[in-house]
Amino acid sequence: MSRKYEAMIVLDMKGREENVETLVSQIGKEFETNGVKLQQVDNLGKKKFPFAPRHVESGYYINFLFEAEPAAVDKVQARLKLNDNVYMQYFQRR
Questions:
Q1: DSSP states of the chain as a string?
Q2: Are 20 and 11 spatial neighbours (Cβ–Cβ below 8 Å)?
Q3: How far is CA 21 from CA 3, 11, 69, 87, in A?
Q4: Between 12 and which of 8, 62, 71, 87 could a Cys-Cys bridge form, CB atoms 3.0 to 4.6 Å apart?
Q5: What pLDDT, in 10s, does the model give residues 56-84?
Q6: In sequence order, what are the residues at sequence separation of 6 or more whose Cβ sits closer than 8 angstroms to the Cβ of residue 94?
Q7: Per-residue confidence at 55, pLDDT binned at 50, 70, 90?
C-alpha cells in the first residue's frame, strides 16, 4: 500500500563545485529510480546551523513530498546515507 511521506534533506555544499539545483535533481532521480512518486520539491535555501557539528556551519534545506511503498523509503534512506553531499535526512509519514 502506497503512502504519503515528507523528507527533509540537508545538503552540505562546503567545498563542492556542483550547484544545488544539480544535486537536487540527482536526489530526485534517486527517489524515482527506487519507485517513489515525487509530488513536490521545495528548496528552502541555505540556513546556518545554531552550532557547528563536524565543522559544517550551514546547509541547504530541501523538502520532498512524495508517495511510496514503505520498502521504497527504506531503500532511498539507505542510498542517501552513502551520498557525501547529504549532511542530514529526516523522513516522516504524512
A1: --EEEEEEEEE--TT--S-HHHHHHHHHHHHHHTT-EEEEEEEEEEEE-SS-GGG--EEEEEEEEEEE-HHHHHHHHHHHHT-TTEEEEEEEE-
A2: yes
A3: 26, 11, 26, 16
A4: 87
A5: 888 999 999 999 999 999 999 999 999 98
A6: 3, 4, 5, 6, 65
A7: confident
Task: Give how far the C-alpha of residue 1 lies from the chain's centroid of Cα atoms, to the nearest Å.
Answer: 23
- Please state, in angstroms and as integers, the Cα–Cα distance from residue 51 to each residue in 45, 46, 57, following that order: 18, 15, 7
What is the grid cell recorded at 44? Answer: 528552502
State the amino acid at position 93 in one-letter form: R
Residue with cell 536526489: 27
pTM strictly above 0.90: no
**Cβ–Cβ under 8 Å, residues 31 and 66:** yes
